[in-house]
Amino acid sequence: MQEPIVFYDIPSNVKGTSWSGNTLKTKLTLNYKGLPYKTIWVEYPHIARTCQELNVAPTGTWPDGSPQYTLPMIFDPNTKTAIADSANIARYLDKTYPDTPRVIPEGADAVQEAAVYAVNTVIAPIMRIVMPVAHQRLNDASKAHFKQHREMILGGNIEEWSPLGSSVRAEQFKQLEKGFEQVAQWLDAGGKQRKYFMGDDITFADIALAARLLWMKRVLGDDSDEWKSVEGWHGGRWARLVAAFEWL
């Protein structure tokens, strides 16, 4: 009998559910595949120790040169395998559970990586818009760690990145809307309106995009004026995309 996979996620006060744009990529992948799993919540200061205890290597390096341990991470008791990074997790799940829907099509690793990178690049303003609000949504145990390391990456004071109601924030939203317009053009390339990057089939690039939108929705609040404005962009396209994934 298959044991549930252990999924490591980051807690917050956002309705007691997954909220991180990174961990959501793995949660959506697990749900789409229909694989059983259980969640272990790990505060930011404890992520490095948790990864080290499972002998999982860092996924990068912080600007100060220290190893960067990140979530999502899973431990699969069925194979005694622990792995971090949402794309690597997706590849592992595709290979280990071939009877589930594949999220990275055979031979499409490079295309999927390029699509995710391109999307993240054009919607980059989302980081300064959402992160300061996310910081306030964290449990007290994680706030200082999150602030220190995000400021290490983007510089400045997180509270000054995108003040609510400011002209700076308004301009960031304009640039973000332009970024999503570019994504819409990619999806409609060749004059065909596609629901997903590969047409009717969900792939990891779609999961990554949906995770970013769900992150924004859950952090800003689904009743917030800011999120409601995003729902109206491009004929409601992004609201429909979120709706297609939110049940996962």
Automatic annotation (TrEMBL):
<dbReference type="InterPro" id="IPR004045">
    <property type="entry name" value="Glutathione_S-Trfase_N"/>
</dbReference>
<protein>
    <recommendedName>
        <fullName>GST N-terminal domain-containing protein</fullName>
    </recommendedName>
</protein>
<feature type="domain" description="GST N-terminal">
    <location>
        <begin position="10"/>
        <end position="101"/>
    </location>
</feature>
<dbReference type="InterPro" id="IPR054416">
    <property type="entry name" value="GST_UstS-like_C"/>
</dbReference>
<comment type="similarity">
    <text>Belongs to the GST superfamily.</text>
</comment>
<dbReference type="InterPro" id="IPR010987">
    <property type="entry name" value="Glutathione-S-Trfase_C-like"/>
</dbReference>
<dbReference type="Pfam" id="PF22041">
    <property type="entry name" value="GST_C_7"/>
</dbReference>
<dbReference type="InterPro" id="IPR036249">
    <property type="entry name" value="Thioredoxin-like_sf"/>
</dbReference>
<dbReference type="InterPro" id="IPR036282">
    <property type="entry name" value="Glutathione-S-Trfase_C_sf"/>
</dbReference>
<dbReference type="Pfam" id="PF13409">
    <property type="entry name" value="GST_N_2"/>
</dbReference>
<feature type="domain" description="GST C-terminal">
    <location>
        <begin position="109"/>
        <end position="248"/>
    </location>
</feature>
